[in-house]
Design a protein that fits this description.
Elements: E1 5-7, E2 17-19, E3 26-30, E4 33-34, E5 40-44, E6 47-51, E7 59-67, E8 72-81, H1 92-97, H2 107-124, E9 146-154, E10 157-163, E11 171-173, H3 182-197, E12 212-219, E13 226-232, H4 240-250, E14 254-261, E15 274-279, E16 283-287, E17 290-294, H5 304-318, E18 325-329, H6 335-340, E19 346-351, H7 354-366, E20 372-376, H8 379-388, E21 395-398, H9 407-416, E22 420-425, H10 428-439, E23 443-452, E24 462-469
Parallel strand pairs: 6-8, 13-14, 18-19, 18-21, 19-20, 21-22
Antiparallel strand pairs: 1-2, 3-7, 4-5, 5-6, 7-8, 9-10, 9-12, 10-11, 12-13, 14-15, 16-17, 22-24, 23-24
Helix pairs in contact: 3-4, 8-9
GO molecular function: rRNA (uridine-C5-)-methyltransferase activity
Active site: 426
Binding site for S-adenosyl-L-methionine: 301, 330, 351, 399
Length: 472
């Protein structure tokens, strides 16, 4: 084996791969780059080593924890030569959970890193684009308006926190999550203590027994309204009435306490089965002057401060006019469409989740908006139907989940050929893939690609770009 491993493949056409490191070995290396997703990368004898909490230009020592043909993973042992942008947050608990992997990187350096990552991703996709400096936050922490946290009994005490990286269900206790609205952290602690007083049982994957799974808290940034959702494995929770009453009595501005029944085999944080234990079935908040109804399952951007900047930027890039017909694909509860409705002639929204469309239409009604309508349908099929009905959109907005757009939706965009196609993305890799697809089918980028730090302290970034059909 020499000083490492050799992987021999059965196929004679594939060469033997020499691995110059061993499991458990400590290696010192210089960090060459940090990839999108937060992995710092250096090399030992040309073989890539991936690790976390390390930044470009640093020399670090890491302990090899995993090996494969392409690269190894290592745990940071010591920073030998720190970057001038490195901070000491003292929050090993946060790093252990992965909540804020950039917590030890100065904020201006986080913004520069994200700009560079987006630029590299576009270059790798063969896209020539100008990626502008990342728009950041004035206070880049304690910003999230929603969180879902697990519970555990440790030393006979009920704790809340977050799952330790690399484990299935080991909870790292936390009181300050660093990225949450501080009031949300206070609410989590209050609810936890009430649950502890009632000696609630926690669901165990190992035994299949127990009731409670998670606590979810939402808080309106402008309204300050609070919703608490108790996520259970079971259809009822012992003492649920008393627990709800105590939460209502102890949490300021509480408007809603909900039981969400979520059997483990669903493999999601929340199910669609909600039952109001106290108060209303939703809370409200405002975004760019529009009042939104927010239920336990509503998709509502978690950073309301930057969301206003993001949507205003997207509307500006769209160059909207009062004559425009706008399609809001993946419309959710209508956040994008309704915030631009007063700038255009008509908004048509499509969303596959019926519950979200119900919320969107509630939002239309409560805001007295008369030029917007939302339908429940698969977006590509609905866009084909609109096209067949003679709908000619001037602008299409998309803000898809991390997997990006399907080819069916991209083909529908090509068929509709809007004057402006505004792509808002939370994953620059799938965004670049989709833009490459459109560039190959008669579109061109208009203007600059703009990253925006919707998720400070994390490895994620929001990005906005506009495409237009090529001139004949």
């Amino acid at each position: 084996m020499g000083d490492g491993y050799e992987f021999k493949m059965g196929d004679k056409m594939r060469p033997k791969v020499h691995i110059p490191v061993k499991l458990g070995e400590e290696v010192t290396l210089k960090i060459e780059r940090v990839e999108y997703g937060g992995q710092a990368i250096g090399q030992v004898k040309g073989y890539p080593i991936h690790l976390e909490n390390a930044f470009p230009g640093e020399v670090v020592t890491g302990r090899i924890s995993q090996i494969n043909r392409q690269f190894a993973r290592a745990q940071l042992v010591k920073v030998e030569q720190p970057s001038p942008d490195r901070l000491d947050s003292g929050r090993t608990d946060i790093l252990t959970t992965g909540i804020a992997p950039y917590i030890n990187l100065a904020y201006p350096a986080q913004l520069e890193l994200k700009q560079r990552q987006v630029a590299e991703i576009f270059t790798q996709a063969g896209i020539r684009a100008t990626v502008t400096p990342t728009i950041g936050m004035a206070v880049p922490h304690h910003y999230r308006n929603k969180t879902v946290v697990p519970l555990a009994y440790q030393d006979e005490q009920l704790v809340t926190g977050f799952i330790k990286r690399g484990t299935r269900n080991t909870v790292v206790p936390l009181d300050d999550y660093f990225v949450n609205d501080p009031v949300i952290d206070q609410v989590i602690a209050s609810v936890r203590d009430i649950l502890a007083n009632h000696q609630v049982s926690l669901f165990s994957d190992d035994t299949g027994q127990g009731e409670m799974r998670y606590i979810m808290v939402r808080r309106g940034y402008y309204s300050h309204e609070v919703m608490v959702v108790l996520v259970t494995q079971t259809a009822t929770l012992k003492d649920e009435g008393a627990i709800a009453a105590e939460i209502a009595a102890s949490v300021p501005n509480i408007k809603s306490v909900i039981l969400n029944v979520n059997p483990r085999n669903l493999h999601v944080m929340l199910s669609g089965e909600n039952r109001v234990l106290w108060g209303a079935d939703a809370i409200h908040d405002r975004l760019l002057g529009i009042n939104f109804v927010i239920g336990p399952n509503s998709f509502y951007q978690v950073n309301p401060q930057t969301t206003e900047v993001l949507y205003a930027l997207a509307a500006k890039k769209a160059e909207l006019t009062q004559a425009d017909t706008v399609i809001d694909a993946y419309s959710g509860i209508g956040t994008i469409g309704l915030t631009v409705a007063n700038q255009v002639k008509q908004v048509l929204g499509v969303e596959v989740i019926a519950r979200a469309v119900e919320d969107a239409n509630r939002n239309v009604k409560q805001n007295g908006i008369t030029n917007a309508e939302f339908v429940t349908a698969d977006a590509p099929k609905q866009m084909v139907a609109w096209l067949a009905a003679g709908v000619k959109p001037n602008v299409i907005f998309v803000d898809p989940p991390r997997p990006g757009l399907t080819e069916a939706l991209l083909d529908a965009v090509c068929a509709m050929k809007p004057d402006r196609f505004v792509y808002i993305s939370c994953n620059p890799k799938t965004m670049a893939r989709d833009i490459r697809y459109l560039l190959d089918r008669g579109f061109t980028l208009k203007g600059e690609v703009q990253p925006l730090d919707q998720f400070p302290q994390t490895a994620h970034v929001e990005t906005v770009a506009v495409l237009v059909p090529k001139a004949n």
